[in-house]
Request: fold
Amino acid sequence: MDVGPVEYVVVAFPGNRFRGEIAPELRALVANGTVRILDLTFIKKDADGVVAYIELDALDPTEASVFDDIEGEVGGLFSHEDLELIADELVPDSSAAVLLWEDTWAAGISGAVRRAGGQLVAHERIPAEAVERAYQDAA
Reply:
């Protein structure tokens, strides 16, 4: 079985204002086979800087309900040290969703590269703002 690249994403919410708008888009990515969720953890930092780590299955049922229809193999793949490093970067009175997903859309090409004896030597995400600026500059 070919496996696509695995990435982590940290999405921060100042003021601890996570409202769930991400869930329908994440659900669509999973449903159409673009990604497979491997882990999903939440970090909350209060105004005094006290940090709480919350796995999806430990969320309040009301908060967790927005993720009910998202299939995945969510399970403690982030180490406590991983989560501490992310929490250190959060400002007080904020929260973050920390996602680990497989880019299933790239599984076929990833497998083909490995079978051909190739090696990935560079991979970097270009921020959307940089792409937008480049398009504007080119116009």
